[in-house]
Amino acid sequence: MGSAKKKESAERKARIAEMRRAEQARERRNRILTIGASVAVVTALVVGAVVLVQSQGDDSSTASDSKNPGHWTTGKDGVKTWSAKLSQTHVTKTVKYPMTPPAGGDHNAVWQNCNGDVYTKALDDMNAVHSLEHGAVWVTYTSKAKKSDVDALAAKVKATPYTLMSPYEGQADPIMLTAWGHQRTVTSASDPNVAKFFEKYVQGEQTPEKGAVCTGGKAQ
């Protein structure tokens, strides 16, 4: 009888010990799971913060040259040159350029077709700036330009690869010529400075990506 009770007591102790071991194992698993979940949450928060900062950094490019502000300096030949290095980052946010028309800076990843292309509607600055990066000269004019000059300039552009032309009402003068980092006003289509500008700046030394294509981009 006493032996049976001792045996029962021993078995009960063994079951209790097993239950305690099981409970301790569950507690360890729960702690591991809790720690793992906490690490995952912290990681997600860190990644989210990085993405947010990067996104805000992209937004800050709305003023492409704010990091390296510059100004125009005018040479004896009448050509203006931007004093600071112009950035070349591809961005999706709208860029606010410090000059009109823009002569360089951050721009859209797609260039405006510039293989002697003449446009009758205003272009997106960000696409046209990409064309300048490829070595194009951009001819722009306002409604104050004479029709005869517009027609003559259009004919010249159509005959010249790595050029493009479009109306641009926001500029200071009726007819302007722009290359990457360079710009000038001309008085008319017959102004000899038109030919000089084309000769020097179409695929000129200022070109950041000389030889890059001017076709296969944005058509309008």
Automatic annotation (TrEMBL):
Keywords: Membrane, Transmembrane, Transmembrane helix. The chain crosses the membrane at residues 32-53. Residues 1-26, 57-78 are annotated as: Disordered. Residues 57-67 have a biased composition (Polar residues). The keyword Kinase does not apply. It comes from the Bacteria. InterPro entries: DUF3105. This is DUF3105 domain-containing protein.
